[in-house]
Write a structure and sequence with these properties.
The protein has 14 helices and 16 strands. It has 528 residues and is of the alpha/beta class. It folds into two domains: 302 residues, ABC transporter transmembrane region fold; 178 residues, 3-Layer(aba) Sandwich (Rossmann fold). Strands 10-13-14-6-15-16 form a six-stranded mixed β-sheet, with helices on both faces. Strands 5-4-7-8 form a four-stranded antiparallel β-sheet. Helix 6 packs antiparallel against helix 9. GO terms for molecular function: ATP binding; ATP hydrolysis activity; ATPase-coupled lipid transmembrane transporter activity. This is Fused ATPase/permease component of ABC-type transporter involved in cytochrome bd biogenesis. It is found in: Cell membrane. One of its GO terms (cellular component) is plasma membrane.
C-alpha cells in the first residue's frame, strides 16, 4: 500500500460499478419497450442473461471497490498521521486540543478522499458525459434533455461547492473552539464544586447559552447545515429531472411521438427518471470535498515551537544551574549544583514554576541562564536521552507493551512486567491488554505510573517526573518511591511534588521561592 495503485483500482472499480448500473437501466428500459411490440419468436433469453450478468458485475465491482478502498483508506490514514508526527517532530506543541483534532479528524478527511469524493464524483462525471455523447452520437430522441440535465448538475455542484467550503471553514473554527473550551473546562475539574457558574446558567440572564459548560451545538449546527444544503440541492436536481420526464412524456416535446415507432426512445426518460439516484449522490460528495480542503488548510496551520536537539549527554560529576529559569514565564531563578545521581526533590508553592523548571532543564522549554554539565556549558535545547514525565501523561490507544515501547526498541517482556509489578500495576497485566480509547480505562494514578515505567525503560541518565505521587494512596506511594530509590543509584531523578513520602530517599532538596523568587539548596549528607 505504498503507492497509488489501490486508490486508482478503487476508482476504476467504482466506475465499473456505475457503468454496470446505468447499463442495466438502459437495457432494461429497452427490454420493457421492445417486449410490448416484439413479434412472436423474439428471443427473450439473451437480454435477460445480459441483465443478470450486469447485475452480478455491479455487485462484485461494488464490494471489490469497498474492499480495496477501505484497505487503501487505512494505509493512507497511517501515512497521513506519520506526516503530522513528522511535522511536529522536535517541537513543543502549543495547542494539544487542536493537535488531537488534527490527528483524529483531519487526517481521516485527507485519507478518505478517494472513497469519499474522488471516486463518486469521477463516476458521475464519466457516466454523465458518456450518456450525453452516446445520446448525441446515436441521435436518440430527447438527447437535448440529458445534455441540459448535465449542465444543471455541473452548475448545482459548483454552487453547492462554494457554499460547502464556507460552511466547512465555519465548522472547523467552531470545532477548534469547542476542543479548546473542553480542554480548559476539564483542566479546571478540581474547582468545579467551587464555581457554580460552570454548571449553572447565569441567573442574571436566565439564558442557557450563558453557561460555562462547553457545547458542541454550534459544530452540530454547521454539520447539519452541510447535510441540509446537499439535500436541498439534490431535491432541486430531482425536481428538474422529473420535470424533463414530464415534458418528454406529455407530448409537449416532439419526442413523445417517437415512442410509437422507436422503443429505444424510452431510454432517455428512464435515465432522466433515475438520474437523482445515480447523480444526486455527488452532492454529498461535494460536502466531503469541502471538508477535505478545510482539513488540508488546518493541517498546514498546526502551531508548534521548534526544539533544538543535542546528542545524548551523560553526567559524570554534576549539573550546575546558574541564573537558570524558564524563559517567558513567571518562574524562579535557580542557582544550584545538582549531583550526577540521586533524587532531587523540587518543592515550592503553586505557581512558583516547578514544572517549568523541570521542562527547561530537560530542554523542552527555552530557558535563560546557564546549564553546565561537568564544567561544560550546554546551549539551549533538548538532550535526546533525558526524559520528562508530565503531570498528565499521554496513554496511547494500544496494548500495554506498545505503550511501554512505542519506538520498538525490543525491550524485554519480562523487564516490562517486573517494572509494572514493582510500581503496583499488576492489575493492568498482561502486556497484551488494550488500553486507551476503546480499551481498558486507566485512572489518573495508573496513567502516571504507566508513563513513569515507559520513561524508566528508556534508561535515561536524567529523569524528571512531575507530581508522581499525586492521587496515589500511601501504599502505592511507597512502591513508587522504592522504584525511584533503586533507579537513583545510577540516575539523576528530579521530582517536582507537593507531597514527599517518607519512603523516598531524597538526596537534595531544591526549594523554590514565591514572590521573591529565591532558591536554597539543602544537601542531606547522611544519604550516600
Amino acid at each position: 500500500m505504498n503507492n497509488g495503485k489501490p486508490a486508482y483500482l478503487t476508482l476504476l472499480l467504482a466506475l465499473l460499478h456505475g457503468i454496470a448500473g446505468i447499463s442495466i437501466l438502459v437495457i432494461s428500459a429497452w427490454f420493457i419497450a421492445i417486449s410490448a411490440i416484439a413479434p412472436v419468436g423474439f428471443n427473450y433469453v439473451i437480454p435477460a442473461v445480459v441483465i443478470r450478468a450486469l447485475a452480478l458485475l455491479r455487485i462484485a465491482s461494488g464490494y471489490a471497490s469497498m474492499w480495496f478502498g477501505h484497505n487503501d483508506l487505512l494505509a493512507r490514514i497511517a501515512k497521513a498521521r506519520v506526516r503530522v508526527f513528522r511535522q511536529l517532530e522536535n517541537s513543543q506543541i502549543t495547542d494539544k486540543a487542536y493537535t488531537t483534532e488534527a490527528l483524529a479528524q483531519h487526517t481521516e478527511e485527507l485519507a478518505s478522499k478517494w472513497i469519499a469524493w474522488v471516486a463518486p464524483l469521477s463516476s458521475v462525471v464519466f457516466i454523465f458525459t458518456g450518456l450525453c455523447a452516446a445520446a448525441v452520437y446515436l441521435d436518440l430522441p430527447g438527447a437535448f434533455y440529458i445534455l441540459a440535465l448535465l449542465v444543471a448538475w455541473l452548475v448545482s455542484v459548483a454552487v453547492q461547492g462554494l457554499s460547502a467550503l464556507t460552511l466547512a471553514k465555519k465548522a472547523n473554527k467552531a470545532n477548534k473552539l469547542f476542543r479548546q473550551q473542553s480542554s480548559d473546562f476539564f483542566n479546571r475539574s478540581a474547582i468545579w464544586h467551587l464555581d457554580k457558574s460552570m454548571i449553572e446558567s447565569d441567573p442574571a440572564t436566565s439564558n442557557p447559552d450563558s453557561t460555562k459548560i462547553p457545547s458542541a451545538s454550534q459544530v452540530w449546527r454547521y454539520q447539519q447545515a452541510q447535510k441540509a444544503k446537499a439535500q436541498r440541492t439534490a431535491w432541486w436536481f430531482q425536481g428538474l429531472a422529473f420535470l424533463f420526464v414530464v415534458l418528454v412524456m406529455s407530448g409537449v416535446s416532439p419526442v413523445a411521438s417517437a415512442f410509437v415507432f422507436a422503443p429505444i426512445a424510452i431510454v432517455i426518460p428512464m435515465v432522466l427518471l433515475a438520474a437523482p439516484d445515480w447523480a444526486g449522490a455527488g452532492f454529498l460528495s461535494v460536502s466531503k470535498f469541502a471538508q477535505y480542503k478545510q482539513s488540508v488548510s488546518a493541517l498546514k496551520q498546526l502551531k508548534a515551537t521548534p526544539i533544538k536537539q543535542y546528542r545524548d549527554r551523560e553526567i559524570i560529576h554534576s549539573l550546575n544551574l546558574i541564573q537558570f529559569s524558564a524563559k517567558g514565564r513567571h518562574a524562579s531563578i535557580v542557582n544550584s549544583s545538582l549531583p550526577a545521581n540521586g533524587v532531587v526533590c523540587v518543592s515550592g508553592p503553586s505557581g512558583c514554576g516547578k514544572s517549568s523548571l523541570l521542562q527547561s532543564i530537560i530542554g523542552l522549554l527555552p530557558a535563560t541562564g546557564l546549564r553546565v554539565i561537568d564544567g561544560i556549558g550546554m546551549p539551549e535545547g533538548m538532550v535526546t536521552n533525558w526524559r520528562y514525565v508530565e503531570q498528565e501523561p499521554i496513554v496511547l490507544s494500544g496494548s500495554i507493551s506498545l505503550n511501554l515501547d512505542p519506538a520498538g526498541n525490543d525491550i524485554s517482556q519480562n523487564e516490562m512486567s517486573e517494572l509494572l509489578s514493582a510500581l503496583g500495576l499488576e492489575e493492568i497485566l498482561p502486556l497484551k491488554n488494550w488500553v486507551g480509547k476503546a480499551g481498558r480505562p486507566l485512572s489518573g494514578g495508573e496513567r502516571k505510573r504507566l508513563a513513569l515505567a515507559r520513561a524508566i525503560l528508556a534508561k535515561p541518565p536524567v529523569l524528571a517526573v512531575d507530581e508522581p505521587f499525586e492521587g496515589l494512596d500511601s501504599y502505592t506511594q511507597q512502591k513508587v518511591s522504592e522504584v525511584l530509590n533503586s533507579l537513583s543509584a545510577t540516575t539523576l531523578i528530579l521530582v517536582a511534588s507537593h507531597t514527599t513520602p517518607d519512603a523516598l530517599n531524597v538526596k537534595t532538596h531544591l526549594q523554590l521561592g514565591e514572590a521573591d523568587i529565591k532558591t536554597s539548596l539543602q544537601t542531606q549528607c547522611a544519604i550516600s
